[in-house]
Amino acid sequence: MWDSFTSGVATSITLNSHRDDGLNEFAEMEYMNVTVVTSNKPYGASDGSNPFFDGRIIPKFGLKKGGIHSGHVQTGLRDPFCIVKNGKGKCQDGYTAETTGPDAVRVLVATKAKPNQNKNSSLDREFFISFLDALNRRQHTGRFNFTTQFPYYKEVLYKPDFGSKTLGKPVVFDMDMSAGDFLALFYLLKVPVEVIYLKAIIVSPTGWANAATIDVVYDLLHMMGRDDIQVGLGDVFAMNQSNPTFSAVGDCKYAKAIPHGSGGFLDSDTLYGLARSLPRSPRRYTAENSVKYNAPRDTDHPELRQPLALEVWKSVVETLDTGSKITILTNGPLTNLAKIILSEKNTTSLIQDVYIVGGHLSHKSKDKGNVFSVPSNEYAEFNMFLDPLAAKTVFDSELNITLIPLGIQRKVGSFPRILKRFQDTKMTPEAKFARRLLTRLYRLQQSHLRYQHMGTFSGEVLGAVALASNHSPLKPTLLVKHIKVVAEGVESKDGQTVIDEKHGKPVKILEHINLKAYYHLFAKQLVNTEQSAVMGSFDDQKRMWRTPAK
């Protein structure tokens, strides 16, 4: 209720703007001299942690040396300076404190919520009465939800009937929900189920999108009639980045390299503005935390809770046919795969092959990686950099790995050559969507300097094509090299994949393919009418919800 209470106090003060004492209905107010604490005692001591003072002749912002902003600045959740012997923290960064002198700002502060004037009410705060009255007021009330906006709204799950078909090799797709991952997912769903049977998807929020973007995965599966496919959510933090005593918080040492806008989180979370054109699935993201009274987040009812990646993995293993093994395609950081390896002994014996889209093998000094937001790290690739410890765990394992590195991805990342293949007038809904997404990425790349990395996403489809093609049309060149991933905790080196003949793991590297065959395979599969969309778009879905069933 804190945000609502703040809004109520602010609104009430505004209605009494002729007064300067902050008079309002809901809170007692008082002027105080305050500051936001940015450092810790001893003040004035320089230890290299304070950017306002360290290395400066004149402190930044005119701050006073020896003042409350001149001490040690907390450098992380586990900053040893801040932890005392009993395990409690002593640092106060971010606290609001009363103070005097030039660091103080005179601020009107709400010190106490006013009690309900009606002593007989079960609601003990005056604000609660006003809040409920406002919510129940007919004026400005909400007009629509799905059930009122669409008279024939109905939640339906589309699940295929494969009948007597012999299902192909079981595959688990590990994605971080970047734009390229959705193109790869379309492709996997279009490959005949006799060749590839996509059993599950596990999502890594340590990559290019936030956890709730899993809704877009659900929507795409709904569009393609594959609501039978389980989707599991992985850890929010990279390995060794979450707080050991409170895993809900952690460091973003590597994830901070992903921009928020300009081809980063905001664009990925909305699929570059195209997510809402997908039909809406009844399956939605819900947080893991429980809420009382059978709310959708109630962990006592796991069917109402977002499944976790390890839970989905265990379900896949339990339903695996005797003698079968799983093939995994990873298109993001290797956090989920590392956790699977570490979850139980002999897990690797259940995995047939792993196709990893990522890593970069630099052959010369000008052959740079793609971590453009960390200039000091010239040779790493994003999927390895975003969780280098997980990558090291995977490459130190006994898994049979095929690596699709950045070099070969760049060779296939030509937007004009891909789009040229989507000129067929008879397009499936999925082909139309893929063309729209590719066109948008290409236009952004052409018109905005900050979108120059869009080609990275077009190359991410290669792993799915390589896994499904049985190699023959692509004419691939695979070389075995001994690979090691750097994970030393040094930002300028972490995530780099290097050749190490003595200590590296033998890995099959995809060096070359027939480019013409690649573009042909990708486009041909998406325009094929077999295993096509059962609900073409959100517009189609809205028309269905407005029309009575026949």
TrEMBL record:
Inosine/uridine-preferring nucleoside hydrolase domain boundaries: 171-519
InterPro entries tied to this protein: Inosine/uridine_hydrolase_dom, Ribo_hydro-like
SUPFAM superfamilies, per database record: Nucleoside hydrolase
GO MF annotation terms: hydrolase activity, hydrolyzing N-glycosyl compounds
Similarity comment: Belongs to the IUNH family.
Protein name (record): Pyrimidine-specific ribonucleoside hydrolase RihA-like isoform X2
Gene name as annotated: LOC109005929
